[in-house]
Amino acid sequence: MHSKIFLTTGEFAKLCNTTKNTLFHYDTIDLLKPVHINENGYRFYSIDQFSTFDMISVLQDSGSSLKEIKEFIKHQNADNFLTILADKKKTIKQQQQHLKQLNMSIDYIIQNTKKAMDVTYFEPIIELVEEEHIVCTPFLEAHHNEQDYYESISSHIAYCQKYEINDDLSYGVIYKKEDIFRGYYRESYYYSYLSKKRNIPNMKTKEKGTYAFIYHKGSYDELKNTYQILLSYITNNNLKVISDFYEYELLNHLQTDDPNNYSIEISVMVK
């Protein structure tokens, strides 16, 4: 049974907890039209249309576009309603996963930024490090120009996107220990940290053990000097290098626009 109660646009908007402009827009796109327009151009809605407006709101809240809702109304039935909600539920689940990954990425940035503000620079230290998991991609070729360098970065980012690795928005580089010992500072791999172990290609486990650390602040051009400080410390303390060298950015272009303020952590496993 249909009600004979009619409401003005303002009254219907108040009933639906919306605005007159929203109703005007729905009218314009033929989504929800008034049941009557008098000779003065005033629009009137039936109170029965509240259920239609409520259905539109439910579908909008679930992520449906007005175009999708309009198409659904043309073929409105229970099966179609279940189908559209099932599709939106899948989309919401994907969005929740994305937000979860984004939240982890933000946690990494906060952690790195705080660490960069607290550490002492250019003074080597020894720390016991728990097992960690990283994903590595090889450098494409020896860099002959800046374009080659950024192509290697782009390749690493593309790999992370392929495997939906969004845990860590920063990245580091790995230098072979034999290259560092002979003063050849050529990057071998890019790497990013993983929040947990994953069964994907190019995943590597950094072993639990004792690591020598040093923190560099300033331009990349001065990194060799910082490496020399670390190597001298290792030699003077009769330590042996048993891993490649890991170089990881704590502060980069995300936090500062001045490369001289970049903060870089250098670490290597020793015994």
UniProtKB/TrEMBL annotation:
It comes from the Bacteria. It comes from Breznakia pachnodae. PANTHER family: MULTIDRUG-EFFLUX TRANSPORTER 2 REGULATOR, REDOX-CYCLING DRUG-SENSING TRANSCRIPTIONAL ACTIVATOR SOXR. GO terms for molecular function: DNA binding. Keywords: DNA-binding. The keyword Cytoplasm does not apply. The keyword DNA-binding applies. This is DNA-binding transcriptional MerR regulator. Residues 6-75 form the HTH merR-type domain. InterPro entries: AraC_E-bd (IPR010499), DNA-bd_dom_put_sf (IPR009061), GyrI-like (IPR029442), MerR-type_HTH_dom (IPR000551), MerR_fam (IPR047057), Reg_factor_effector_dom_sf (IPR011256). SMART domains: AraC_E_bind, HTH_MERR.
